[in-house]
Amino acid sequence: MTHLVILPVLLPLVAGSLLLLATGLGNGARRAIALVATFALLPVALLLLERVADGAHLVYALGDWAPPFGIVLVVDRLAVAMLLLTAVVAAASLVYACSGDDVRGPQYHALFQFQLLGINGAFLTGDLFNLFVFFEVLLIASYALLLHGLGAQRVGAAMHVVVLNLIGSALFLFAVGTLYGVTGTLNLADLARVMPLLDPDLAPLARSGALLLLGVFALKAALLPLGFWLPRAYAAATGATAALFAVLTKVGVYAILRVYPLVFGPAAGEVADVAAAWVLPAALITLAFGALGVLAARTLRASAGWLVVYSVGTLLVAVGLFSEAGYAAAVYYTAHSTLASAALFLLADLIARQRATGGDRLDVVDAMPHATVLGVLFFVAAVTVAGLPPFSGFVGKLMVLEAARVAPGAVTSWSVLLLAALVVIVAVARAGSALFWRTGPATTAAPPLDRRSVGAVAGLLACVVGLVAWGGAATEYAWSTARQLADPAGYVTAVLGTDPHAWEQRRGQR
């Protein structure tokens, strides 16, 4: 058993607790602790990536309780990709926050670490109940981070987020209780083993639990009609918080991608492919509304929020195909969309600071200070999120289109994908024109650009460029992850062991 597996959970837990309890620390010491803990996640994720590169699964049983009876953490290619992605976004967001956002309210750094604790735990957990626990940890931290800095807009947005997610949490418990009552287990590997053996009389209950769970994950992922809360909430948050929140919707997508091919896949008997009829239509609707929302947005922050909805729709089109090609496209597009969205939120906040009279409004105001630097950053971000060559958005969109080409309803999927992409191109071009071209004369002195803030945005965009520069390795990793997802037997064997009769005997003793 390697203790490396638990470090992505342990590091933010220890750092967050220390920051919360050490009330006498100055802001400099708090920043140092938070930065060390956050940047330490990068080498940990890279070491885990090296361990699973050959297709291995790392299983960590807390307290040495053998699964399915104890808490288990599992690292595979998908989980470690999400851990590394989270570490990169968190590092850039925290560097940006240290330029001044972190002093606008108490306990920012502790909340930031607890947010990472919940996110990393959700990616690592091997059972549904602890997925619920980690969801609650990240949601509680996100409520407080959304309120950071206060203001009527943030309070109003936070109220909507809290109410909706409390309803989602209650439904999550109902779904978990239903599945446990039917199967007697919540361990994901054990559920995958039990589902094909389920009594046909219990199948309707299991199907109800699975669909209820899908609704909860759709709410977390901001899949419409459950995602109208997201643009307003993300636009209200501070720049660094919104950038970190770019990962939150991916937790919901990850949960769908983890649970449904594994537990309710083609081999699940009476409940096989239970989500297949729902995910793709909802994804296409989300994609279309997201693109229209980007076009209708009046501020760059709101535009970035709707771009998150648009990217979730595109991503879940790939997931909703429930094919190996779709999984590969989803893995690559997840990395691209998360990095690009986080960079755009930071850039929107940076632009709002520079435009003294107009903020991030997409209308004619004073000329943009430092237009060369900010214009280059915006151009790269805009081309990326619009899915234009030569950046990663184009590669990801091509992978999604290729996966949809051989699937049922290909004409509809291609039509919505391409028309929505055209709308987004028009919207980001309009935004760039309003910010950098259709401007009035400068009336105030340009405030200096904070190097840390610019460096955080540039670092995220450099990662986006890296997805293309090392595109062969990135796409090969996406395909190897997809093959692992499409064949869940390796996951089940790694967690439960190779002797199914031993597990039957143990289950009989419960």
Q: How would you describe the overall organization of this protein?
A:
This protein is mostly helical and 510 residues long. It has one domain (3-441, 448-498). It has helices spanning 7-21, 27-52, 77-97, 108-124, 128-147, 152-183, 188-194, 203-221, 229-236, 239-245, 248-263, 276-296, 300-320, 324-354, 371-386, 392-405, 410-436, 451-469, 471-486, 489-496, 500-508; strands at residues 58-61, 72-75. A two-stranded antiparallel sheet has the order 1-2.
Helix/strand layout:
Blueprint lengths: L6 H15 L5 H26 L5 E4 L10 E4 L1 H21 L10 H17 L3 H20 L4 H32 L4 H7 L8 H19 L7 H8 L2 H7 L2 H16 L12 H21 L3 H21 L3 H31 L16 H16 L5 H14 L4 H27 L14 H19 L1 H16 L2 H8 L3 H9 L2
Antiparallel strand pairs: 1-2
Helix pairs in contact: 1-2, 1-4, 2-3, 2-4, 3-4, 3-10, 3-14, 3-18, 4-5, 5-6, 6-8, 6-9, 7-20, 8-11, 9-13, 10-14, 11-13, 12-13, 12-17, 13-14, 13-16, 13-17, 14-15, 14-16, 14-18, 14-19, 15-17, 15-18
Concise synopsis of the structure shown:
The protein has 510 residues and is an all-alpha fold. It contains 21 helices and two strands. It has one domain (3-441, 448-498).
Task: Provide key terms for this protein.
510 residues, mainly alpha, two-stranded antiparallel sheet, 21 helices, disordered C terminus
- Please tally the helical runs, counting DSSP H or I stretches of 4 or more residues: 21
Number of strands: 2
Overall pLDDT confidence: 88
Low-confidence stretches: 500-510
